[in-house]
Amino acid sequence: MSCHGAIVGATGAVGHDLLEVLAARGFPLRSLRLLASPRSAGQRLTFRGEELEVEALGPDSFRGIDVAWFSAGGDISREYAPLAVAAGCAVVDNSSAFRLDDSVPLVVPEVNPEAAKGHAGILANPNCSTILLVLPLAPLHRAAGLRAVIVATYQAASGAGQRAIEELRSGSRATLAGEDAVADVFPHPLAFNLIPHVDVFRPDGYTKEEDKMLFETRKILGLPELPVEATCVRVPVERCHSEAVTVQLQRPLTVDAARALLSEAPGLELVDAPAASRYPMPLPMAGRDAVAVGRVRQSRVLEPGLTFWLSGDQLRKGAALNAVQISELL
Ligand SMILES: NC(=O)c1ccc[n+]([C@@H]2O[C@H](COP(=O)([O-])OP(=O)(O)OC[C@H]3O[C@@H](n4cnc5c(N)ncnc54)[C@H](OP(=O)(O)O)[C@@H]3O)[C@@H](O)[C@H]2O)c1
To answer: Which of 70, 71, 77 to mutate to test the pocket of ligand 1 (most atoms within 8 A of CB)?
Structure first.
């Protein structure tokens, strides 16, 4: 059965990938409405070889629409997602607006597809770093029981949107020309730098991004007490987040057994031949659906435990692909 769809935030970084993923997966759409701010109204974007005109988002945008993918920030989702649901439309929301709402499923289809069944109109797409993290955590938990997770992220500029990509590029050019790089999207110039500050700081010294990784991981895995300690860092990479992960387990798991589990887990690709200099990296994962995991070894600190490294395209699996997979579950 084909349906009428809409993308809210079609001109943004996630919107761009939503168009590509919907076309590539042959999502059964009879029509697609592209919505953005009034600034972009009239702009034309290509979908399945056809030019579609962007419309300004408004209260009546969802009349006759069956499914809408929202990626225009939390404020827009809070205002317009309820209107879309009232118009009979299912909403898959990329923002953090509803993720921790008990009545809203937070879904990674390879991990907790059953959660989607209980939806009341809105389904939430998790935080991008969290989606990449739970893909390997889920099979390790099933095999050996998770006790604790420590993770440091290496997050690409594009995680902060289209303007952030442009800021990294112009800042790189300026620095190479011996000029000052301007910081507008980020709190400091990102080119040739690392910024341990993603989203806003909380009074306890953690950032909101680090809190998302804690609370969303707990909700997706159904482990409300799981300790998850995250340090989130923005890096001067254009696309694909990477993460250094250490897990403490309830039962020992050999490196070989962990590699076998990770190589079979849906959504993951094991890239782990250190002697041949083969390990996950952001550049080769750009535009890929799979999340690469490697550098698997025994933890020297948390016992029994494992340490590993992953890289994955946060605009694909961390946003657009996961959102489309959620709508496929419907
Ligand atoms: N980037 C990622 O890796 C990623 C991953 C997961 C989740 N997300 C989430 O996805 C959402 C979008 O992120 P993004 O990276 O795609 O941001 P972006 O590149 O800045 O795009 C923002 C989009 O929202 C639209 N928009 C802004 N104000 C609007 C308004 N008043 N009315 C209607 N549309 C409006 C923009 O339209 P104009 O072009 O007209 O301004 C643009 O299409 C955010 O909630 C973000 O947290 C992002």
So the answer is: 71
Could you tell me the two tokens for 267? 């959504």
Based on the fold, state whether residues 13 and 107 are members of the same structural domain: yes
Number of separate domains in the chain: 2
- 85 & 135 share domain: no
- Using CB distances shorter than 6 Å, the residues near ligand 1 are 9-15, 36-37, 39-40, 57, 71-74, 76, 94-95, 128, 158-159, 161-163, 314-315, 318-319
Question: The whole model's pTM is what?
Answer: 0.98
Residues 141, 81 within the same domain: no
Alpha-carbon torsion 102, 148, 144, 134, what sign?
positive
- Segment 244-294, tens digit of pLDDT: 999 999 999 999 999 999 999 999 999 999 999 999 999 999 999 999 999
Q: What is the CATH number of the domain that holds 153?
A: 3.30.360.10
Is residue 4 part of the annotated active site? The answer reads no
* Model pLDDT for residues 263-277, shown as the tens digit of each residue: 999 999 999 999 999
Q: Are residues 95 and 191 in the same domain?
A: no
Residues 139, 274, single domain; the answer is: yes
CB neighbour list of residue 99: distance below 8 Å, 6 or more residues apart? 106, 124, 126, 127, 212, 216, 219
SS3 201: strand
pLDDT of residue 118: 85
3 part of the active site: no
